[in-house]
Amino acid sequence: MLIITDNHMHLYNHLRLKALKQFRQAGGTHVFLVSLLSHHYGIHPSGGRDFRVMFDEHIKLVRKANEIVKAYAVLSVHPAEITILSKRWGADRAGEIMKEAIDVAGEYVTQGKAVAIKSGRPHYKVSDHIWKVSNEVMMHSFAVAREADCPVQLHTESYTKEGMEEIARMADRTGIRRDRVIKHFAPARVDEFSETGLFPSVIAMGENAIKAASQGDRFVLETDYIDDRNRPGSVLGPKTVPKKINMLLNSGFDEDFVMRICRDNVEWIYGIEIE
Questions:
Q1: Which whole-number Å values give the CA distances from 67 to 3, 57, 63, in the listed order?
Q2: What is the pLDDT of residue 275?
Q3: How many whole angstroms separate alpha carbon 119 and alpha carbon 99?
Q4: Which of 122, 123, 180, 213 fits a 20 to 30 Å CA distance from 255?
Q5: pLDDT tens for residues 60-92?
Q6: Closest residue by Cα to residue 200 from 213, 215, 190, 210
Q7: CA 193 from centroid of its chain's CA atoms
Q8: DSSP characters over 120-147
Q9: What is the DSSP letter of 42?
Q10: Per-residue confidence band for 109, with pLDDT thresholds at 50, 70 and 90
């Protein structure tokens, strides 16, 4: 069976599980489902323990998703939480809450309920102090992931090689393998990611799949489908990765190549066995 994996997808309030049925009908077989921000679950955290409610809800959803395709849970402490939580608690306490939530996510991974953590730093302009706290939170996620033996999916500012090199050095200080730090929403810069050691989850937009494949097979693909009824189809629809895989096959890349990006790479970075 040809494995077709979407490395980063959300299910929220639009299609929900119907999105995965579309993914399957297009040829998709495996998906990494990422939890959203706390407010999407109606939660206003005062401590990391409050994230258990959203993590538990997400894991229940992933369990249902497994009736359609093979789905894996990624538990997110989204870097934008720093802005939301700072309004009530101040930046320093917000960072502490996020670190506590990452600790909880690490526990869930250790218990086999999830396979990865999502962290990062804001993709929008923030104060120097919030940037500093965000980097501390991100480094904490690296340390927790190292102990839990799992990767970290990263939501960050727009790609620059310098920014990725900085993050790679931060990862080194915690002892996590660089290739277990996955840049979510990555551009098709496979060569540059090979140099920095971080692993690109290439957004399957436009010609990105072809551009990435022309540089080798060291990448995975994602849609970052958000499933928000106010933005239907954003960022990319659930059928996109299977369509891009077919584009690769029609462009001369063989099934062995597809299996390397959709199975072998996934097994390597997540430490799981794809069936």
A1: 17, 16, 7
A2: 83
A3: 10
A4: 180
A5: 999 999 999 999 999 999 999 999 999 999 999
A6: 190
A7: 16
A8: E--SS---HHHHHHHHHHHHHHHHHHHH
A9: T
A10: very high
- Residues 6+ away with beta carbon under 8 Å from 133: 82, 91, 92, 94, 95
Phi, psi of 222 (to 5 degrees): -150, 160
Dihedral angle over CA of 200, 115, 60, 261, nearest 10: 40
Residue 12 tokens, joined:
């929220």
Are 5 and 29 a contacting pair, CB within 8 Å? yes
Fold classified for 5-270: TIM Barrel (3.20.20)
Q: What are the E-state strand segments in 59-140?
A: 70-76, 116-120
* Res 232 pLDDT > 90: yes
Which two structure tokens, joined as six digits, stand for 148? 């839990």
Distance CA 74, CA 59 (A): 9
Report the SS3 class of residue 173.
Answer: helix
Distance CA 166, CA 114 (A): 27
Domain residue spans in the chain? 5-270
Q: How far apart are CA 63 and CA 163, in angstroms?
A: 36
Q: Which residues contact 269 (CB under 8 A, 6 or more apart)?
A: 151, 179, 180, 182, 199, 220
pLDDT tens column, 203-216: 999 999 999 999 99
State percent of the chain over pLDDT 70: 100
Contact assessment for residue 223 and residue 240, using Cβ atoms and an 8 Å cutoff: yes
- Measured CA to CA, the distance from residue 22 to residue 16 in angstroms comes to 11
Backbone angles phi, psi at 183, to 5 degrees: -85, 105
- Which tokens belong to 83? 């802005």
Residue 115 in this model has a pLDDT that exceeds 90: yes
Query: Locate tokens 């104060």: which residue?
Result: 127
Mean pLDDT of 125-137: 97
pTM, full prediction: 0.98
